[in-house]
Amino acid sequence: NVRVFGSFARGEAEAHSDIDLLVEFEEGRSLLDHDALVLELEGLLGRKVDIVTERGLYWLLRRRILREARAL
Questions:
Q1: Burial of 31 (0-12, 13-18, 19+ CB in 10 A)
Q2: What is the pLDDT of residues 49-67, one digit of tens each?
Q3: Which residues, listed in sequence order, are joined to residue 71 by a DSSP beta bridge?
Q4: Fold category of 2-71 in CATH
Q5: Contact 53, 22 (CB under 8 A)
Q6: Are 65 and 22 in contact, with CB atoms under 8 Å apart?
Q7: What is the tens place of the pLDDT at every residue in 12-34?
Q8: How many CA atoms lie less than 13 Å away from 5 in the CB half-sphere?
Q9: Every domain of the chain and the residues it spans
Q10: Among 15, 49, 62, 64, who pairs with 57 as Cys (CB 3.0-4.6 Å)?
């Protein structure tokens, strides 16, 4: 399950905008898997990529992020 949120989800992305992804990892995945995915996506997309899990969302932003997140 991968969802985009932030400026790309709102249609407000600019040339310098990063891509924010909300991802559900399979059980047993490690921080190394997370970092490898970030590096691979940044190479493919040519932009900075931020990946977070629902569990890792900052509580003050959680509601807004979940509301604007769009499935890919």
A1: exposed
A2: 999 999 899 999 999 999 9
A3: 3
A4: Beta Polymerase; domain 2 (3.30.460)
A5: yes
A6: yes
A7: 999 999 999 999 987 878 778 88
A8: 20
A9: 2-71
A10: 62
